[in-house]
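The data are quoted verbatim here:
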Amino acid sequence: MPIIHDDEFSRILLDDCPYADATTEGLGIAHTPARATLTARHDMIVCGVEEAARMFELSGASSHIAVGSGNAAPAGTLLLEATGSGASLHRTYKMAQTLMEMLSGIATAARAIVEAAQGANPHCRVACKRKHMPGMKRWALRAIEAGGAVPHRLGLSDYVLVFEEHRNLLDGSVPLSEHFRGLRAHAPERRLAAEASSVEEAIMLADAGAEIVQVDKLTPEQVAVVATKLLEYVPRPILAAAGGINASNAAAYATAGADILVTSSPYLAPPRDVKVRIVPA
């Protein structure tokens, strides 16, 4: 689970309320004891409730988590309760609500893909790309993991993945297998992955020594052809399918023989509504 520090929560709160809450103070309710409840308006996979709770605490309120991240919550379920002054609750609730809604939307979408894929092939894993909003990596990882997915790669530094855009810049007079040997020597502790856009390219990359063959935008039928061909290799390369993977087609790709489904679609999921109610304590 990614670590998110208090200074990030403080930055979020200060961004929304850099000086004072003019409405709450102007109404004279800043010191009124109050209670806030955050409830699932629709069915969801919960994410961000712990972070929301911490934001309330940093504002001077106390909090109680009713449903933790990664759990399914039917509509109407109490997720989080906070008690404190009117000022502390009003300063925090909108940022806490929005955070939970956005992260729960991603987690819910990721869980749908995971369940579809593993319902067809229990050994198939769903990995989410780094194609999230730039600068939001920790939040994105938090949400996909709550949904049961894993990161595809954390960034350029931790994972070796050769795209066509890399191969276009290589010396074509040198066999690809030689380039792969050099890459493996440069990063001996990492598996060598390479992406193909056709069945023929996938086989070519496996012949050159790719340990993970990632196919992009192939149909499930084409993925099945690649999966069958890779059985001839010892050791067999891992097969990852990417490009347009979502909950509606995940089962087909998993059944076709993909070991990993690579997707960014959860990041585009709509938020899951969280209802906030504030009443006197």
Summary: The CA atoms of residues 160 and 187 lie 8 Å apart. The mean pLDDT is 96. The longest strand covers residues 33-40. The two ends are 34 Å apart (CA to CA).
